[in-house]
Amino acid sequence: MDSALRARLAGNGLFNRVDVAALEHLIEDCAHWVVAAGETLLEPGTINDCLYVVLRGELRVYLSGHEAPAHTVVGVGECVGEMSVINGQGASALVIAAVESELLVMPQEILWALIERSHGFARNLLAILAGRIRMDNLALVTTASRSLEFEQAASVDALTGLHNRRWMSDAFPRSIRRCEQDGAPLCLVMADIDSFRRLNDAHGHLTGDAVLRAVARRLAESLRAPDLIARYGGEEFAILLPHTATEEGLRIAERLRLSVELMSLAKLADGAVGRVTISCGVAPLGLDTELETLVTAAEGALRRAKDGGRNKVEVAG
Questions:
Q1: Spatial separation of the C-alpha atoms in residues 23 and 84, rounded to whole Å
Q2: Is there a contact between 26 and 114 (Cβ–Cβ < 8 Å)?
Q3: pLDDT digit string (tens) for 22-74?
Q4: Labelling 9: which of 1, 151, 255, 308 has CA 20 to 30 A away?
């Protein structure tokens, strides 16, 4: 194994705090793939016997087709395919390369050999699996339950493809309770599209709907794997950031704000639409805080951002 690959593996994801040198003879038997942007790596229901570690680039995971916003973004040092390899069942989601990506392809027999030879590797894989399971909406995915299809339809906003307020009222409190029990920080971000009524009046509701979908997709694709997002109502979105302290929550909200501001709207039906911006209010988790209290605090901060000129991030205080 060359030093460049060793450095890229060390300290990331599966190989965090693992002596990579001691496992080189196994890793060298893994293939390297380069997948083009837009190429499909895994499809729901298909048999998969490899784990894929991202060495360069980015993968996106979709639960209900790539027309909806990505459920998870998998970056450098992270992996996909571990669930289907371990349980021997078909893949549960659609995985597509967002950009040209380089992957370390680990066959099933190599994966089990690494688990047997390295407690550190096994520990990291267990942590990844636990994280996957704790993502409530991913844990609910099945491929053959019509009753689940109806349940999912009732919890998804038809216009944007995001989860709706009904789903939020169940999923957000459970995540809040877990952070309270773990003594972990958490932030709620309320984000609202600036001057949306004026945009609707100027360009029509069809263009307004297209802007809503574009902003929803951009926000969802910009979040981390454990984060939760829902359309709160109208042009407002609620974003829950578990295990996130106030300063980090502000940085994430600012990144979301900038991501929307830089978004290209050239492909929308009305080419005259210029820049679209959002304002954000951030509320950190307090002692015994309920979701309604967090929403009220974050919306108060959001109003200050609007009153302060829009396209801003404010924190509840």
A1: 23
A2: yes
A3: 899 899 999 999 999 999 999 988 999 999 999 999 999 887 666 667 777 88
A4: 255
Could you give the residue numbers annotated as active site? 235
- Within 8 A by CB and 6+ apart from 16, the residues are 120, 124
Secondary structure string (H, E, C) spanning the chain: CCHHHHHHHCCCHHHCCCCHHHHHHHHCCCEEEEECCCCEEECCCCCCCEEEEEEECCEEEECCCCCCCCCEEECCCCEECHHHHHHCCCCCCEEEECCCEEEEEEEHHHHHHHHHHCHHHHHHHHHHHHHHHHCHHHHCCCCCCHHHHHHHHHHECCCCCCECHHHHHHHHHHHHHHHHHHCCCEEEEEEEECCHHHHHHHHCHHHHHHHHHHHHHHHHHCCCCCCEEEEEECCEEEEEEECCCHHHHHHHHHHHHHHHHCCCCCCCCCCCCCCCCEEEEEEECCCCCCHHHHHHHHHHHHHHHHHCCCCCEEECC
Torsion of CA 165, 167, 173, 174, to 10 degrees: -170
302 touches 192 (CB < 8 A): yes
pTM comes to 0.55
- Assign domain 3-139 one CATH number from 3.40.50.300, 1.10.8.80, 2.60.120.10, 1.10.10.60: 2.60.120.10
pLDDT in tens, 3-15: 777 777 876 678 8
Determine the pLDDT at residue 53: 92
Distance of alpha carbon 172 from alpha carbon 178, whole angstroms: 10
Give the residue range(s) of CATH 2.60.120.10 domains in the chain.
3-139
Residue 191 near residue 236 (C-beta atoms within 8 A): yes
Question: How far is residue 5's CA from residue 2's CA, in Å, rounded to a whole number?
Answer: 6
